[in-house]
Amino acid sequence: MDFSKYPAEPFKIKVVEPVKMISKEERIAAIKEAGYNTFNLKSEDCYIDLLTDSGTNAMSDSQWAGMMIGDEAYAGSKNWVFLESTIKELFGFKHVVPTHQGRGAENILSTIAIKPGQYVLGNMYFTTTRYHQERNGGIFMDIIRQEAHDATIDIPFKGDIDVEKMESIIKEKGPENIAYVCLAVTVNLAGGQPVSMKNMREVRKVADKYGVKVFYDATRCVENAYFIKEQEEGYQDKTIKEICHEMFSYSDGATCSGKKDGIVNIGGFLAINDDELFGKAKEIVVVFEGMPSYGGMSGRDMQAIAIGFREAMQFEYIEHRVKQVRYLGDRLKEAGIPIVEPVGGHAVFLDARRFCPHLDQEQFPAQSLAAALYVEAGVRSMERGIVSAGRDAKTGENHKPKLETVRLTIPRRVYTYAHMDIVAEACIKLFKHKEDIKPLKFVYEPKQLRFFTAKFDIAE
């Protein structure tokens, strides 16, 4: 292996969790019982679990040690003081509101910043984010660059906002009708694609011109910072911390799930610069999350997340994290497996349209492919296509995203390159008999965020 291209794990393994591969017959029975939805599978029945990188990370010895000094005071915990100061130092925001995870922060921001009928402009939707925006009367409009919707285009910073489109919509709708711009760094459903610093500056310039606020989804901001350091001119000698600090200087605030780049199992925050919005957020957090000094987290959780963010900004850590994901993507590309290009920071996305050309989008090719991959090798992945996109609230018709993908999401500090090899071999083997992958139909469809709990059966 070329260790400059794929660096070895920058850690030693101290604790292990045994896993086992159940038989193919047992996997067939398990996926059928789960309604062909990988979310409904039991964790113990999954050999390599790539469902998500959210809360599935391995914490360091420093984080575990930090949990031993958890101050579980209902108010004023010393761990909250440490977390608040850490976020202010690393991200540069004036105010911080803790939440149990990113979803809690999305709920609070949407509640305080959206008036019914206003538009939220974003660089591609994310499922829970859009749900909270629409639940509070917002209308989501996608302003990501057009290339992001094409899995075959390999260009840097595919998550950039189309600034001309952004300005055109602001002019058309009127600045007073724009709640805010939601800028995700990186863009999950586009394949974990990063946003350039140049684009962030341009977005800020247009937003200031019309008096529109810009809020980031900072969930994978450290990964985004790595791509800037690696690929954007003028940042090669900057530290990850310096890059992150500049990134957020172009925003008015951010929601963040600490379960990703915070390298923990629970926790998140909402950061804001505006004093009035901060006052409203503190009122809402008490109703939905807990006190403004813990927000649904225990003291030990807050200590772990603060340490996790500091560790995440160490170059050796983030270099290995991104390049381990890239290793899997490179192996699949070399074998001719269709994936979303370029490979992003947290996952490799199989392009289900090209993987399963015999299936129409209404036959749920990504859902079928995810189920088939589990049966093939006990690898749990996630559908990110028509099922995740949901239905139009007015017409009841399925949203049909241009990207129909299966996300192979790599938890942080959990798996080795050998595990990536097993995943790659399973995808390659499955691709050779892809015509055997069957279409699916709904047998149970919840009204909201259906991909989490829906059940399917083979469509005859």
From TrEMBL:
CDD domains, per the entry: Tnase_like
Alphabetized InterPro entries for the sequence: ArAA_b-elim_lyase/Thr_aldolase, Beta-eliminating_lyase, PyrdxlP-dep_Trfase, PyrdxlP-dep_Trfase_major, PyrdxlP-dep_Trfase_small, Tyr_phenol_ly
Domain Aromatic amino acid beta-eliminating lyase/threonine aldolase, first and last residues per copy: 49-425
Pfam families for the chain: Beta_elim_lyase (PF01212)
Keywords (A to Z) from UniProt: Lyase, Pyridoxal phosphate
Root EC class: lyase
One Gene Ontology biological process: tyrosine metabolic process
Catalytic activity: L-tyrosine + H2O = phenol + pyruvate + NH4(+)
Domain of life: Bacteria
Record-listed E.C. numbers: 4.1.99.2
Sequence similarity: Belongs to the beta-eliminating lyase family.
Subunit architecture: Homotetramer.
Protein name as annotated: Tyrosine phenol-lyase
Lineage of the organism: Bacteria, Bacillati, Bacillota, Clostridia, Peptostreptococcales
Name of encoding gene: tpl
